[in-house]
Amino acid sequence: MPPRLGNAWTAQPAALETTGGYRHFQLLGQRGRGPTRAVELEAVLERGFRLLVPLVQLRDRQLWQPGWQRIAGLEPADMPAAGLQDGPSQAIPMQIIPAIDLLGGQCVRLHQGDYGQVTRFSDDPLAQALDWQRQGAQRLHLVDLDGAKTGQPVNDAVVKAITAALGIPVQLGGGVRSLARAEELLACGLNRVILGTVAIEQPELVRQLAARHPGRIVVGIDAKDGLVATRGWIETSTVQATELARSFEDAGVAAIISTDIATDGTLAGPNLGALRAMAEASTIPVIASGGIGSLEDILSLLSIAPLGVEGVIVGRALYDGAVDLAEAIAAVGPGRLQDAVIPPSGSITV
Ligand code: AMZ
Questions:
Q1: pTM for the whole thing?
Q2: CB of 259 shorter than 6 A to ligand 1
Q3: What residue numbers bound the domain in which 47 lies?
């Protein structure tokens, strides 16, 4: 039985090892919900970090990973895990990006990207987009699913209506296969365009666009068992997702959206291992996509934020009500929830 967390923050190297260096708390024992929920926690926090969600709120909020953030000016003790030592000294906000997937002008979600497993959520995507903006979204993610499958855009009217009506930046992926198409979208007000299929089939086009439009070109890497899938995820290549990420290291792209097809639309939790590998493959910021089913899943991403995971795309969980957008933004965004004051000799009680 590992030592119970006492009234002081204690570095526990053994715990750090088993959690891959993730500095959040781990629930031990039964992981039930409500009154039966176990609250025994194993501390993997060290001095120099503070909790994102106060421990006293964990039970009420039904969370098991409060998350952590580094306290500016305090040096953590020696860190055995690789990769995190160079993290910035400020808390790293994570952007929550709601997704609207468009199919025949409607707002839908697919299960694992399968066009045969469609759930329709709204026939008014513009109203949905305005609602996400009202709830505090700082960016909106649009996917033209028809475009991704056929290469021919059929949702332009609604894409343009959303882009014109919203004050926040909007990004679009799906079916952007040429320089002219990408530039047409950028010219009509989209903040960023996402290139998936083209990243494998015409990598030079990605480089050319990134050079012409700095900060506005994103590479979408969608992976099945670590291999890149294209054309609406109907085709799978033999290229490793991490290898493709590495190949754009110096291309000047704004970000990589890393989608795990097996978890997309399933609410089963993000593939942290795959995301970690993508974040480590290059210095390009990574936006996680696929599998988010709860606030807890979003908090778990904070463990890899220092590796360059700067945002997360959330789809089905928002439509199902499993994640509340405003709460998620409060939990991991710039004004995140945290213990009010942790003195250097900080003490917490479980
Ligand atoms: O769900 C799907 N089947 C799907 C999907 N969501 N297929 C492609 N896409 C998205 C990718 C990326 O944002 O995640 O479309 C974009 C890539 O499109 P393209 O046409 O550049 O490969």
A1: 0.81
A2: yes
A3: 8-78
pLDDT tens over the chain, length 350 residues: 333 333 333 334 544 444 444 444 544 444 444 444 434 444 444 445 566 666 666 656 666 556 666 555 544 443 333 333 333 334 567 899 999 999 999 999 999 999 999 999 999 999 999 999 999 999 999 999 999 999 999 999 999 999 999 999 999 999 999 999 999 999 999 999 999 999 999 999 999 999 999 999 999 999 999 999 999 999 999 999 999 999 999 999 999 999 999 999 999 989 989 999 999 999 999 999 999 998 878 877 877 887 899 999 999 999 999 999 988 887 787 766 554 333 334 333 33
Specify the residue with its C-alpha closest to ligand 1, atom 7.
Answer: 232
By most ligand atoms within 8 Å of CB, the mutation choice from 114, 143, 264 for ligand 1 is: 143
Question: Which residue is associated with the tokens 């004050």?
Answer: 167
Q: Which atom of ligand 1 is nearest to the CA of 194?
A: 13
Number of domains in the chain: 2
Decide whether any atom of ligand 1 lies within 6 Å of the 97 Cβ: no
Q: Are residues 128 and 245 in the same domain?
A: yes
Decide if 21 contacts 80 (C-beta within 8 A): yes
DSSP letter, residue 303 = G
Q: Are residues 122 and 232 in the same domain?
A: yes
Is the CB of 293 inside a 6 Å radius of any atom of ligand 1? no
Please classify residue 14 by burial: count the beta carbons closer than 10 Å to its beta carbon, then call 0-12 exposed, 13-18 middle and 19+ buried: exposed
Residue 257, classed as helix, strand or coil, is strand
Please tell me the residue having the least CA distance from ligand 1 atom 4: 232
| 112 inside domain | yes
SS3 of residue 313 by DSSP: strand
**Could you tell me if the CB of 153 is within 6 A of ligand 1?**
no
